TrEMBL record:
Domain M23ase beta-sheet core: 83-182
Pfam family, one: Peptidase_M23
Name of protein: M23 family metallopeptidase
Alphabetized InterPro entries for the sequence: Cell_wall_metabolism_enzyme, Dup_hybrid_motif, M23ase_b-sheet_dom
Gene3D superfamilies: Glucose Permease (Domain IIA) (2.70.70.10)
Superkingdom, taxonomy of origin: Bacteria
Length: 210
């Protein structure tokens, strides 16, 4: 590799657009030694703390699948000027309250409750400080802010809440919006969850639901 390219990669910070967009991609993971220390550290923290795909498969009904595409920074259809900082995991059966949502990581519930954009959301901070944001839930299990959770623990059920005042539902199809954030530098920086989710598909739990 040319020296110029090496220098460019090594000087990237977590906030660089290309790092955030390509986060956890096979290419980035293969070339880790060329990343800056800060970028490599966050990649490693996410790799170590992310254990399970957030939506278990159904052991009862194989038609209850999910699907998602890389929609990083696409424009959203709710209010102007905000782009998509996450991945939408869509439900094949567009019915709220059916698909379970589990924690990707061990961690502490650091945010819980209503957000205009995110609806009923959950924010979990992992042991190494990775922030996982789960939005648009239909309902929660018996969890409270400050609780510790284990990877794979049931958090609630997928829904279509958000885009309005508290309790708004049905403004879009049922899905789980997942966000991944770093707080390492003192500011909140989102990275693209798409490639991490692809890799976590090998670690998908099975739950009994139909
Ligand atoms: Zn989304």
């Amino acid at each position: 590799m040319e020296k110029g390219r090496q220098n460019t990669l090594a000087s990237r910070t977590i906030s660089s657009a290309s790092y955030r967009k390509d986060f956890f991609s096979p290419g980035m993971r293969k070339d880790q030694t060329l990343l800056s220390r800060e970028c490599r550290t966050f990649l490693k923290q996410v790799e170590e703390d992310s254990i399970y795909f957030p939506v278990p498969a159904s052991s009862l009904d194989p038609s209850l699948t999910v699907s998602y595409v890389d929609s990083w920074m696409y424009e959203r259809n709710y209010k102007e000027g905000n782009s998509h900082e996450g991945t939408d995991i869509m439900a094949a059966r567009n019915e709220r309250g059916i698909y379970p949502v589990v924690s990707i990581s061990d961690g502490t519930i650091t945010n819980l409750g209503w957000l205009e954009l995110g609806g009923w959301r959950i924010g979990i901070t992992s042991p190494q400080g990775v922030y996982y944001y789960y939005a648009h839930l239909d309902s929660y299990t018996d969890i409270r802010e400050g609780n510790t959770v284990k990877a794979g623990q049931l958090l609630g059920f997928m829904g279509d809440s958000g885009y309005g005042p508290e309790g708004t539902k049905g403004e879009f199809d049922v899905h789980l919006h997942l966000g991944i954030y770093s707080w390492g530098t003192g500011e909140e920086i989102s990275v693209n969850p798409y490639y991490l989710l692809r890799s976590l598909e090998e670690h998908r739990l099975k739950y009994q639901y139909s």
